[in-house]
Description:
The complex is a heterodimer of chains A (247) and B (359). Chain A has 247 residues and is of the alpha/beta class. Chain A has helices at residues 24-37, 72-82, 94-100, 102-110, 151-154, 160-164, 181-199, 214-217, 221-235; strands spanning 44-47, 63-65, 87-93, 116-121, 170-177, 204-210, 240-242. Helices cover 36% and strands 15% of the residues of chain A. Chain B is built from 12 helices and 15 strands. In chain B, α10 links the parallel β11 (254-257) and β12. The interface between A and B is large, with 33 and 42 residues.
Amino acid sequence: xxxxxxxxxxxxxxxxxxxxxxxxxxxxxxxxxxxxxxxxxxxxxxxxxxxxxxxxxxxxxxxxxxxxxxxxxxxxxxxxxxxxxxxxxxxxxxxxxxxxxxxxxxxxxxxxxxxxxxxxxxxxxxxxxxxxxxxxxxxxxxxxxxxxxxxxxxxxxxxxxxxxxxxxxxxxxxxxxxxxxxxxxxxxxxxxxxxxxxxxxxxxxxxxxxxxxxxxxxxxxxxxxxxxxxxxxxxxxxxxxxxxxxx
Amino acid sequence: xxxxxxxxxxxxxxxxxxxxxxxxxxxxxxxxxxxxxxxxxxxxxxxxxxxxxxxxxxxxxxxxxxxxxxxxxxxxxxxxxxxxxxxxxxxxxxxxxxxxxxxxxxxxxxxxxxxxxxxxxxxxxxxxxxxxxxxxxxxxxxxxxxxxxxxxxxxxxxxxxxxxxxxxxxxxxxxxxxxxxxxxxxxxxxxxxxxxxxxxxxxxxxxxxxxxxxxxxxxxxxxxxxxxxxxxxxxxxxxxxxxxxxxxxxxxxxxxxxxxxxxxxxxxxxxxxxxxxxxxxxxxxxxxxxxxxxxxxxxxxxxxxxxxxxxxxxxxxxxxxxxxxxxxxxxxxxxxxxxxxxxxxxxxxxxxxxxxxxx
Lengths: 247, 359
């Protein structure tokens, strides 16, 4: 009988700890499928963040390490110095990357570090229970912005792709959205392209995933996916910001 | 082997190269700048990687990544920089990753100053990290001793899978002394790392199973068990890593306890006191943690006074009192803020204190 589907060997065959409707599971699977398809599972080293995805090393079937909060790009820079020929990635949420780790991601990009960062943007702190993130939208409610974020109090949400794409040595910067099967396929293509460019040693590569956090948004999973599409994508345009010639 | 006249900080960098270091990470801070400056041009020549980090926070985490991936890693900083690295050091203790950190210390608190100081004693022996962890600390008194300790400490760090710290100070970093450099060890080739360090994250094709280096333990009983495991290692360190130098304890009236730069002045003061008819001895802790408590058992029956001589407001004196166990009065001779007293000042103060206790 012809096999039409099998789970990727890139994922450890256990249930994840993520909430129903959370986008982490999709993002994990896409990245791991890509690494499997490339034959890279045995030569990949990943760094997980502080946040919900600290648990990713229970699910991603490659060598991994945890990180102090926000410092995954520094850690990956160190790993890269020892293993110049392996596949190296960081997987970070928006509290981790855009707030406490804003310095490390900018400088890793600035140095043109030859690893890939997968950035899960769900506009909120997940693991700690729904506090405002730098990416929280204006008007969006959070446990530290109970009447909704205001510009006066917290400024505008940080657009990370837009910021990183101004950096010369960040050679591939793309924002994708995990709201429907067609866009999930597009996201997978962006992951492959980022890994192609990493393998070619051209510079820093970055993929942002607009993601849902139904639990902390207080929404049903289907409504959360709609909100990603309508509200998040309106402020965070889904597109390629930058790629090297020929990719 | 012939000796070279070298500046301390450059000799410390060269010692790391000789120890087969693969990676160095650091951020500019006085008075240790010659360490990264020297390694920026010499480490790549030796086949290693130099990277100037954007901050001490980044530097210590780069070091964690490189060490978790199996590289031999060296970092250096000075006091306020070490304060920034403390979270990383605790994390590295928790994840059981080896590296060697050099602190060429300066005055504090805060930005403080840039002159020789030992006011980091508490910071290095107790740590500024959260949780239950320990970092073995060695305090050399000469450039040669510092070179030899750096060279050796990589093996200690790898044996214990824990960071090891060297506490130098601005005097040792900035002065020049003749030094004999140890032979060069080769950097472990990348394809040999998994054989030497089977726990390292090198890619699953390199080793059995899957390696994950982690700190988070959500179940209290699991975390407690892990911390107890760490403390089994620290108990072994307390048995194996105690080092000190003791002189003239048998018939000393007064015993100095002093390390690093201050201990060199005490050596001079001991000679001056002898000229004044007072026999003095010294315990020079080389390991600050574990503290050489057992050295105090060598103190003879004539001792009337133990003096903790420090370049701080008196931090080591707490450990000295614990080690002395009320067997002798313990007094302090100190300067701080970057001032190094003269041996004459130490001598006069010692005679005053002696008169006081003889009352």
